[in-house]
Specification:
Layout: H1 5-8, H2 31-37, E1 43-54, E2 57-68, E3 72-76, H3 83-91, E4 95-103, H4 108-111, E5 115-118, H5 132-137, H6 141-144, H7 151-164, H8 180-192, E6 198-202, H9 210-225, E7 229-233, H10 237-243, E8 246-251, E9 261-267, H11 268-271, H12 274-280, E10 284-288, E11 293-297
Parallel strand pairs: 3-7, 3-8, 5-6, 6-7
Antiparallel strand pairs: 1-2, 1-4, 8-9, 10-11
Bound molecules: adenosine-5'-triphosphate.
Length: 300
C-alpha cells in the first residue's frame, strides 16, 4: 500500500487500539512559533482552542494553529477523527463548540464568499437532471443568489472554470453521465467559479484513476502558485508530500464518542513525521521513507 487508505478503514473507535499518547500540541511542529509570527492579516485561518461538532457535542477539538495565506495544508487522519467536521466548521456549517475561528480575519459566515469547497463525493446526488454547466453555475449562487440572472460575466466565469479543469467539451452533458473523476473535476470547477481565496477540498482524490489524480494534483499546485490557500483532506500521504506545504494530522479520540484532536501541525517536512503519523493512525504499522508513506493494519 502506498497510502493510509487502508489504515483509515480501521475502526477508530476501538478503545483497545486507541491507547494513544497525550495529544501533541498542534503547534508542536513549529505551528506555535508560526502562529506567533503570523500577523492576523497574513493568515487565511486562525484557530484558537477551537472545537467543532454537532448538536452541542464536539467531534474535533484542541485546534490552535494558523494557516498562512498561500499555504496548501494536507488534512490527514483516520476515519472519524473529524476532518470533514473541521472543514464544515471553517465553512460555518458545523457548530463552533469551543474556542475561536477567524477566516481572513472574519467569522466563517462573513468569509463564506471567499471560500470554495468540494464536499466528499458520497454527499453528492449525481442523479439530478442537470448539465455539467449548470452544476458549475451553481457555484455563483452563493455570491449572487439563485434568482439573479448570471449575465455574461458569470457565463464567462463558468466557461473559464470548465476550461481550467479540462471539461469544456463536456459542458452540455448530464452531470450523472460523467465518470466519477470527471464529476470530481466538475465539482472542483464549481468551487473555482467564484474565484475563491480559500479552497476546502474533502478527499478529492478518493477513487480517482491515475489520469484524474494527476490532473487534480496539477490543479492543486497551480492554484497554490496563484496565492490561493488550500486545505485538502486526504488519506493519501504521498499527495501531502507532493502537493502540500503544510500538514495537519488529526488523531481519533481515545473512546468512540471522544472528539478527534491534532497530532501535529506545521510544514510538511516537520509535521509529517513517522511519530506523528503513528500517533494519528494508532492501530497501524507505518513506514516512511523519502518517497512514500506506507501504512498497514497490524491485524493484516
Ligand atoms: N451531521 C452530523 N451529525 C452528528 N455527528 C456527525 C455528523 N457528521 C459527522 N458526525 C460524527 O462526527 C465524527 C467525525 O466525523 P467526520 O466525518 O468529521 O470524520 P472524518 O475524519 O472526516 O472521517 P472520514 O475519513 O470517514 O470522512 C464521527 O463520529 C461522525 O459520526
Amino acid at each position: 500500500m502506498t497510502a493510509a487508505r487502508d489504515a483509515a478503514a480501521s475502526d477508530p473507535g476501538d478503545a483497545q487500539h486507541c491507547a494513544a499518547p497525550e495529544p501533541m500540541q498542534a503547534g508542536g511542529a513549529d505551528g506555535g512559533a508560526e502562529r506567533g509570527a503570523l500577523a492576523a492579516s497574513d493568515a487565511a485561518l486562525v484557530l484558537e482552542g477551537a472545537a467543532f461538532g454537532y448538536h452541542g457535542t464536539s467531534r474535533v477539538e484542541g485546534l490552535t494553529l494558523a494557516v498562512p495565506v498561500g499555504a496548501a495544508v494536507a488534512l490527514i487522519g483516520p476515519n472519524g477523527s473529524g476532518k470533514s467536521t473541521l472543514l464544515r466548521g471553517i465553512l460555518g456549517l458545523a457548530e463552533l463548540t469551543g474556542g475561536s475561528i477567524r477566516v481572513f480575519g472574519e467569522t466563517p459566515d462573513r468569509a463564506r464568499r471567499r471560500i470554495g469547497s468540494l464536499p466528499q463525493a458520497d454527499t453528492r446526488d449525481a442523479t439530478l437532471p442537470v448539465t455539467l454547466r449548470q452544476v458549475v453555475t451553481m457555484g455563483l449562487y452563493r455570491s449572487r443568489g439563485a434568482l439573479r440572472p448570471i449575465g455574461r460575466t458569470g457565463r464567462e466565469a463558468v466557461s473559464r472554470a470548465l476550461e481550467r479543469v479540462g471539461l469544456s467539451a463536456w459542458a452540455s452533458r448530464r452531470f450523472g453521465e460523467l465518470s466519477g473523476g470527471q464529476q470530481q473535476r466538475g465539482i472542483l470547477a464549481r468551487a473555482l467559479v467564484s474565484d475563491p481565496q480559500l479552497l476546502l477540498l474533502d478527499e478529492p482524490f478518493n477513487g480517482l484513476d491515475r489520469e484524474n489524480r494527476d490532473v487534480l494534483l496539477r490543479l492543486v499546485r497551480e492554484l497554490r502558485a496563484e496565492g490561493r490557500t488550500i486545505i485538502v483532506s486526504t488519506h493519501d500521504l504521498e499527495i501531502a508530500q507532493e502537493a502540500c506545504s503544510h500538514a495537519l494530522l488529526l488523531a481519533s479520540g481515545h473512546h468512540p464518542n471522544q472528539p478527534g484532536h491534532p497530532a501535529a501541525y506545521g510544514p510538511v517536512e516537520q509535521a509529517l513525521t513517522l511519530d506523528a503519523v503513528q500517533h494519528a493512525f494508532q492501530d497501524t504499522t507505518v513506514e516512511l521513507d523519502h518517497h512514500t508513506v506506507t501504512t498497514t493494519r497490524e491485524t493484516e
